[in-house]
Amino acid sequence: MRAGYDSRADALQILLSDVNAREHSEPVDERCSVDLDASGSPAGIEILAAGDGGFEGGLAAMANRYGLDASALLAAARAALAVPDRPVVIDVGYLAA
User: Fold this and answer.
1) Could you tell me which residues are beta bridge partners of residue 26?
2) Element (H, E) at 71
3) Where in the chain are the domains?
4) Please, what's the largest Cα pairwise distance for the chain?
5) What is the pTM of this model?
6) b (16+ CB within 10 A) / e for 34-66
7) Fewer CB atoms < 10 Å away: N or C end of the chain?
8) pLDDT tens digits, residue range 16-75?
9) 92 CB-near residues (< 8 Å, 6+ apart)
């Protein structure tokens, strides 16, 4: 997973795959949208006005709707905000049973 926060645009992007396969975007709320690939699977996430925080609910809703790991998305978002204007790469493993 790759994430980045553009401080000038105040926008955060989380890429869920290495392939740039975005077909279209769907809004989740007024600040969060998900980029879907041709098969309807999530390929990326965009959060506007990310520097203000308060986007956790949108990430949780997105994770629930598309079967994503909400904790991993939140970790990626927080990491990207911690180092603005630089890419962050996170490798998330499976939960131990």
Assistant:
1) 34
2) helix 70-82
3) 2-82
4) 42
5) 0.90
6) bbbbeeeebbbbbbbebbeeebeebbbebbeeb
7) C
8) 976 667 788 899 888 999 999 888 889 999 999 999 899 999 899 999 999 999 999 999
9) 1, 69, 72, 75
